[in-house]
Amino acid sequence: YYPPLIAILLTSCRTLNIAGYYHRHEESLDSMETTFRTAYQEKPFSIEFTSRSFNRVSLELITDTLTYIYEYQVGEPRLQDTLKKFGYDTSAIDYLIRVMQTHQCTWIDNLDYYTDTARHSVVYISLWPRRFNFAFVNKKYYILTYFQRPQYFDSEGRLLVGRRLRHIRKINGDVYHRINDRVCYTISDRFR
């Protein structure tokens, strides 16, 4: 009989209640989405943390002709120099990096999707909380998606293609569940 081993195995099966997490941190997460959406409209980019300690950050900077990917230590002066060189809003990106560290967000990006040939976009935020990083557990990412307009859901809270169509919408092969009319979540084995 090994009580410590049983305790480890039981806690390793815990999952994050992502809807509860969203509601506890709604103001901060919504602010992150708004800041990202505004800065992205000025100049497209994405941010990814490449280390589990959340001290290495990768920036994908999208220009008219090329996409540049840079990786830095958080706070490294070269990060600011690069953002200025490409004309990005340094204060918005600094804010996003700080908030992402706080919430243990591994990635934030804009994802385009189409309905009836109309282009729409969602802000895609991937979380991988350290406190749920246990041995013997498949790594899962908790993904929040922010839609620009209210969406339709079935009686089980699953995201639908549209009001009249009762087909479940999948994004990147994942089924999304309702948090509110504009915010959904899924649990995925990939962060993007």
What tags apply to this protein structure?
alpha+beta; two-stranded antiparallel sheet; eight-stranded antiparallel β-sheet; disordered N terminus; 31% strand; single chain; 192 residues; globular
Strand content: 25-35%
- Calculate the terminal CA-CA distance, rounded to whole Å: 41 Å
**Share of residues in helices:** 25-40%
Sheet with most strands: strand arrangement: 3-2-1-4-5-6-10-9
The arrangement of helices and strands along the chain is: HHHEEEHHEEEEEEE
Coarse shape: globular
Number of helices: 5
> Which structural class do you get from the secondary structure elements?
alpha+beta
Largest sheet: 8 strands, antiparallel
How many DSSP-defined strands? 10
Mean pLDDT: 84
Radius of gyration: 18 Å
List unreliable stretches of 5+ residues. 1-14
Task: Describe the 3D structure.
With 192 residues, this protein is of the alpha+beta class. The protein is 30% helix and 31% strand. It has an 8-stranded antiparallel sheet, with helices on one face. α3 packs antiparallel against α5.
What's the helix and strand layout?
Elements: H1 3-12, H2 18-24, H3 26-42, E1 45-49, E2 56-62, E3 67-73, H4 77-85, H5 90-103, E4 105-115, E5 118-127, E6 141-147, E7 170-171, E8 174-175, E9 177-178, E10 183-188
Antiparallel strand pairs: 1-2, 1-4, 2-3, 4-5, 5-6, 6-10, 7-8, 9-10
Helix pairs in contact: 3-5
Write a brief structural summary.
The chain is α+β, with helices and mostly antiparallel strands.
